[in-house]
Design brief:
Blueprint: E1 3-8, H1 19-26, E2 30-35, H2 41-54, E3 61-66, H3 79-101, E4 107-112, H4 122-132, E5 138-142, H5 147-154, E6 166-170, H6 171-174, E7 184-188, E8 203-209, E9 217-222, H7 223-241, E10 246-252
Length: 254
Amino acid sequence: MRNIHVIGIGAGDPDQLTLQAVRALRSTDVFFVLDKGEAKSDLVRLRRDLLDAHVPQGTYRVVEARDPERDRAAGGDAYSPAVGDWRGARAGIYARLIAEELGENGRGAFLVWGDPALYDSTIGILDEILDGGSVRFEYDVVPGISSVSALAARHRTGLNRVGRPVQITTGRRLAEGFPEGVDDVVVMLDAQQAFRTYADEDIDIYWGAYLGTPDEILVSGPIAEAAPRIERLRAQARERNGWIMDTYLLRRNP
């Protein structure tokens, strides 16, 4: 029976791998990597650097495939169908890679940024493939250090305050309103910089981009003061690198 590891590889720093992740890496025959195009070639390079740092050369293969495009302009009622179409296309690619590149008793792996259980589609896609029955395999999940954990550590702060909840949400949801009953909100996947909506409120922001990589950028402070700087740094970094991954914590003051 084929076996697949879904391995959380942290936010970018090879030192963030857990010992469990390293053991899984070293037991893998084939690593499957989706190429997101030239603009995001750094993401493929970071994965290869990680393998070079932790896995003996000559003991594995890396198989790349082009990641399907997603309709990023789709909004409102069209958003969920667009994501569903993209996931379906990814499922087809994953199923083909597993069936064609992995032997009947081989061990393959998908390397997931951060933690596979937090805003990542790999687990759901593998379940979709198994439900479809096109290829049989077993899989396990190795947790990783998420960008959320890395963000809090780099800013030397906790995600929540004593006796208070913390909520993790997306920029799309934050733009609809600050979550009720919560003063500490972690925001991911915010291409539109929804934090600007709250620049007039007494809120502190802890922002980080390219966490765990040599390009890491950190900004913190009252949102009214920090927001213009974040916008400027974010635009410069995106222009320079062609892509950006950022996460932030909003903390409403009592």
